[in-house]
Write a structure and sequence with these properties.
The chain is of the alpha+beta class and 49 residues long. 33% of the residues lie in helices and 12% in strands. The model has no long low-confidence stretch (mean pLDDT 92).
Length: 49
């Protein structure tokens, strides 16, 4: 899996620990949703304020 964090167009470097936490948190939350197949290919999350 590849994990990338972009804030206001700038990619933020992530260390292995943070990548692992983000991957596990997002993939676990999304996979538990009804109607989402376990063999998903890509998750995109966009947050704006």
């Amino acid at each position: 899996m590849e994990t990338k964090l972009v804030v206001d167009g700038q990619e933020i470097p992530l260390n292995d620990f943070v990548e692992k936490i983000l991957r596990g948190m997002l993939s676990g939350a999304v996979t538990s949703l009804r109607g989402i197949k376990e063999d998903w290919q890509k998750i995109e999350l966009e947050i704006s304020k």
